[in-house]
Every structure is written in C-alpha cells, then in structure tokens.
C-alpha cells in the first residue's frame, strides 16, 4: 500500500453531537474469526527461535525464543523499552533482525524467497494508534486492502467489511470518516479492518493504551471475543484483567530478553523471576 499522503477532503457530514449519536448496533452473534482459522488443537503458528537484533551498537533483543500455537493467546508485558514492540514487529518483518529465525505458519520471515506483502496480509496488526486513512470512509477503510492486496471484488470486500463492522458493533458508522468516531470506535474499526484480510494470526501492540479510560472496555471486549473464537493472538498489553481472562501464556520481557514465559496461572500465581515479581507488584497496585 502506498504511504503517499493524499489530500484529505473535509467530510461533508458534521460530527454528530454525543447526545444524538446513533447507538452502536451492539455485538452481533457469530464468530469474528474465519471458521477455517478457528481453534484446532496443536500446531505451531508462530515460532520465534533465538532471535537477536541490534540498532547499530545497541542490542535491543537478545536470544528470544518462544512459540505460539494455533488458537493460543499470548500476552507480552514488561517495562518500557524492554523490546516488546520490537519483538512483535519482527514477527511480520516490520523490523529486520540479525540472528535467529521466525516462522509464521510455514513461512520463514527473513528468508529472501518470502513474499513479504503476502505474509503481512495474513498477519493482522493493530497498533496503539489506529492508523485508519483519515480521508476514506469507514467502509473504504475496511475494503481498500482487501481489494488492492487480496484482489477481492468490490461487492465481496464490502460484504466482508460490513459484516465485521457489525460484529464490532459499529454498523451505524459505515459511511462516516475516522475523525467522526471516538478513539475506542476507531480502534474497533482497526480490528475489523485487520480481520477483513482473513489473518492467520493477530498481533496487537498496546491497542488500548492511547484510549480514554472509558473506551478501553469496548476494545477489550472485542479482543476477548476474538480470543474466544479461537484466533491466534500475540498481545502486548498491560491490561492484566484481559491477560487473566483470556491469555493462555504470559511472556515477561526485560532489557531485550524473554525473562519469563509461563502459563497464565503460573505467572500470576508466582512469577519466578524477581524482575517479573517487581513489575507485577507495581502494575497491580493501580
Ligand atoms: N528505531 C530505533 N532505533 C534505535 N533504537 C530504537 C528504535 N526503536 C526502538 N529502539 C530502542 O529499543 C528499545 C526497545 O524499544 P521497544 O519500542 O521495542 O520497547 P517497548 O518494550 O515496546 O517499550 P514501550 O513499553 O515504551 O512501548 C528501547 O530502548 C528503544 O529506545
Ligand atoms: Mg512498545
């Protein structure tokens, strides 16, 4: 997709004042996940094998190894600067790494033969900032990559996009522009947009940390539903309530290393490392 900025026409419809805002359609029943991707026991979906990465002389990741099985939800936490974002960006090759290997399904991420646009089209990514195209309507945001990257016909792309918009409770907003939606609503659109590509895994990097507190819940609700539908997910977040509810495992990173990689029950029960214990006690104070 091109990053050339395009002139952003001013949306013709004024922002609806909150008192008159159409209420969200509410969560529809039905899976968020393509049934073909639904939970099937076993099978490694993401294998991160001894990766190390440097920015110049600075080593940002040191010998990181972990696996995410199909249908598994892995929460990644740790102090600021510990390498969480860098690690998940390596999974869809947004960041190169110098040592080790990452395999997504059967595709080796750093292999010269790998078709990166194709890999990225199957690895959904949701960032802290929603990064919707401001000059495109919500429907256009939901369909553009389906059409340009996957070559889906317009009608099919629209059907899939609008279906997912309904699933995240936002049918009423299909013709609006991103700037007319709240942060929480925009983030739900960003999730729907990623799902529209039929991803085999979803990566989230602090998807709720830029939101006003009252909007965090609606985004987490969509993510919980997605997890329960069997999506394979790697989620960088400090929302420990979410981790307790749906994570299978928790990875704790510090200074570029995976210090702890434990089942949720073990991590919250008694983290092994002192660093994880200190981190948990700090964030759980609030
Ligand atoms: N492009 C870059 N060039 C140089 N150093 C970088 C670059 N991006 C990140 N870093 C450094 O790499 C380290 C890890 O950064 P990263 O963003 O992965 O941390 P993080 O755990 O996601 O932190 P946060 O919780 O603040 O988001 C930090 O010390 C950061 O300053
Ligand atoms: Mg980060």
From TrEMBL:
Record region (Disordered): 1-34
Segments forming domain ABC transporter: 46-280
Subcellular localization(s) per the UniProt record: Cell membrane
Comp. bias intervals (Pro residues): 1-20
Main location: membrane
Pfam family, one: ABC_tran
PANTHER family recorded: AMINO ACID IMPORT ATP-BINDING PROTEIN, GLUTAMATE_ASPARTATE IMPORT ATP-BINDING PROTEIN GLTL
The family this protein is said to belong to: Belongs to the ABC transporter superfamily.
Name of this chain's protein: Glutamine transport ATP-binding protein GlnQ
Organism expressing this protein natively: Methylobacterium trifolii
Gene coding for it: glnQ
């Amino acid at each position: 997709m091109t990053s050339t900025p395009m002139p952003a026409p001013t949306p013709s419809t004024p922002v609806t004042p909150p008192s008159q805002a159409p209420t969200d359609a509410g969560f529809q029943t039905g899976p968020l996940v393509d049934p073909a991707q639904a939970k099937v026991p076993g099978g490694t979906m993401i294998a991160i094998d001894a990766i190390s990465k440097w920015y110049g002389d600075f080593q940002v990741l040191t010998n990181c190894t972990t696996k995410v099985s199909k249908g598994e939800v892995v929460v990644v936490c740790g102090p600021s600067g510990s390498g969480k974002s860098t690690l998940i960006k390596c999974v869809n090759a947004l960041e190169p790494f110098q040592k080790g290997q990452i395999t997504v399904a059967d595709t080796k991420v750093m292999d010269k033969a790998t078709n990166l646009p194709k890999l990225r089209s199957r690895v959904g990514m949701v960032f802290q900032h929603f990064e919707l195209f401001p000059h495109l309507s919500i429907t256009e945001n939901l369909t553009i990559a389906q059409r340009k990257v996957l070559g889906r016909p317009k009608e099919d792309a629209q059907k899939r996009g609008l279906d997912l918009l309904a699933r995240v409770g936002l049918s009423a907003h299909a013709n609006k522009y991103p700037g007319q939606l709240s942060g929480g609503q925009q983030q739900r659109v960003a999730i729907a947009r990623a799902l529209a590509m039929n991803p085999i895994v979803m990566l989230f990097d602090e998807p709720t940390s830029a939101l006003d507190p009252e909007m965090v819940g609606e985004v987490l609700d969509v993510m919980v539903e997605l997890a329960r539908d069997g999506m394979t997910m790697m989620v960088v977040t400090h929302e420990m309530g979410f981790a307790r509810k749906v994570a299978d495992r928790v990875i704790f990173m510090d200074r570029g290393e995976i210090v702890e990689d434990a089942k949720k029950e073990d991590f919250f029960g008694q983290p092994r490392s002192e660093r994880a214990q200190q981190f948990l006690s700090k964030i759980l104070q609030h």
